[in-house]
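Supplementary Note 3. Input sequence used for the single-chain structure prediction.
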Amino acid sequence: MMVIVFRARVRENADMSLMGALGERMYELASTMPGFDSYKDFAAADGENVTIVEFASESELLAWRHHPEHVAAQERGRQEFFSDYQIQVCRVERAYRFAQGEGRTEIR
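The predicted structure, written as discrete structure tokens, is reproduced below.
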């Protein structure tokens, strides 16, 4: 499994309605891609936004990275919405979960 951590700060003058619509479209598109597993979005008190995306494999993640509509959205993000961002691509070594009544179990 691949985990992508996208950390970004939004420009003060960014059109939030346009950015929201583009984000919704990217989620809609990404969720149809083979290997897509999950997407979570968080906002920190200091203004940083963090998105965590999971894909089953590196090849499936790369297909998403190079999807033409996603490439165009990345460029719009640089030109219109983000003052800065950082992307970390991580390969999961181990994964566990805990659920009351089930205890701790290995995920994969």
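The CA atoms of residues 28 and 49 lie 19 Å apart. The chain has a mean pLDDT of 95.
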